[in-house]
Design goal:
7 strands, alpha+beta, 3 domains, two-stranded antiparallel sheet
């Protein structure tokens, strides 16, 4: 399989969580973690760092590495079922604090860039159902089946955990042919599955979206949404400008060190250096600009 660089097209920043799940899955199948991390510019310390942020292209490269070794069509489904609400961090808790399932998924869509999803989604509202059509045409071909099935399985897991019930989709459609082994598909999606379809899609009964959630808390949800908005704003601003702003806020006598800046930004040193390298600078250069 040819390795193509997707750095420019897929440079969005995201948490390392789904990549960590990918590495854990590989280890369970006796695939060395370093094989999965080839070409990602990441090491094991990055994966274990709870503050590590990566770019989408790095996760895509790791997915490509996995599929070159093990291309079982059920891999995406298995990994999607492991994406529990807690994996989403602040976003997961904001969804849990929502009034209804519809509000929770609306928050998830609003902060899509912070979620573990890579696919875009189109929503079709019918009188009795709501269908989520998974759009993967902008993604590298090798990743489309994996990411679509991972996303659909993650959505089912999310719905089940938010409603505290073993609800299944009323229909799930796949573009691929019916696999010989249906165990994982049945476990994730139930029995109403169609194969060889035009799109990947998943539908739920509309009444489900009006269900009041157990942990509805308006005030917590508002605080968490503010935090998510700040995270989006931070990710959209350049790392260089954020570092420079922090340094300028301090007197020369108390000029911050790189580890202190990392703590303030909530990221690891390797993450900071990687982002600055992408912007063709480094901490020492920024520090010298502030001093002089």
């Amino acid at each position: 399989m040819t390795h193509i660089s997707y750095k420019k097209e897929f440079s969005d920043i995201r948490q390392v969580t789904s990549l960590r799940l990918l590495v854990d899955f590989a280890r369970e199948h006796d695939i060395p973690a370093l094989e999965i991390l080839k070409g990602t510019e990441l090491d094991l310390d990055d994966i274990e760092d709870p503050y590590c942020e990566i770019q989408v292209w790095q996760e895509l490269r790791a997915i490509q590495n996995l599929l070159e070794i093990d291309d079982d069509p059920a891999n995406g489904v298995i990994l999607g079922m492991r994406q529990h609400l807690t994996c989403y961090g602040t976003l997961g808790f904001a969804m849990m604090a929502s009034r209804t399932l519809e509000q929770a998924l609306t928050i998830g869509a609003k902060f899509y860039k912070i979620s573990l999803w890579i696919n875009e989604v189109s929503v079709v509202r019918d009188p009795d159902t709501i269908k989520f059509v998974i759009l993967g045409h902008k993604l590298p071909p090798f990743s489309q089946h994996f990411l679509a099935t991972r996303g659909m399985a993650a959505l089912v897991t999310c719905v089940q955990e938010l409603t505290n019930s073993e609800v299944y989709p009323c229909q799930t459609s796949f573009k691929n042919d019916r696999p010989d082994n249906m165990d994982e598909v049945g476990k994730a999606f139930g029995t109403e599955t169609l194969f060889g379809q035009k799109n990947y899609s998943i539908s739920f009964n509309r009444s489900l979206f009006r269900m009041q959630l157990k942990f509805d808390d308006r005030w917590s949800r508002m605080r968490l949404e503010d935090k998510l908005s700040n995270t989006l704003e931070r990710r959209h601003s350049s790392t260089k400008n954020r570092v420079k702003e922090m340094l300028l806020q301090m007197s020369n006598e108390k000029l911050s060190t790189e580890p202190e800046i990392c703590r303030a930004l909530g990221c690891s040193m390797s993450t900071l250096r990687r982002h600055l390298h992408t912007e063709e600078t480094n901490f020492r250069q920024i520090q010298s600009e502030v001093i002089f």
